[in-house]
Amino acid sequence: MEISGIITAIIFGAIIGALARLVLPGRQNIGWLWTIAVGVAAALVGTAVAAALGVADTKGVDWIEWAIQIGLAAAGVTALERFRAGR
Fold it and tell me: What is the largest CA-CA distance in the chain?
């Protein structure tokens, strides 16, 4: 992977992580680095899920892929927050 791909993944991860935290109610007690990490992971997994469902490449903006990625990021933020609260 080239440096531009890594930078793009971090930027999209930050956006997806932030959007996931916006759709969740209340305050999430995790830092911004964890938010980016969860967002990057959700972006990668969400892209694979969208490709498996056949909705990854559409004309225009891939809204279904974005929804899958944000949903996965929201689930990841919730899981991480509960994991950290239990310790």
Answer: 45
- Single pTM value for the model: 0.85
In this prediction, residue 78 has a pLDDT band, given cuts at 50, 70 and 90, of very high
| Mean pLDDT taken over the chain | 87
Cα separation, 17 vs 8, whole angstroms: 14
pLDDT for 20: 92
Neighbouring C-beta atoms of residue 25, cutoff 10 Å: 5
H or E stretch covering 16: helix 3-23
CA distance 56 to 35: 23
CA dist., res. 1 & res. 55, Å (int): 24
Cβ atoms of 70 and 49 within 8 Å: the answer is no
Tell which residue, 67, 82, 74, 66, has the closest CA to residue 20.
74
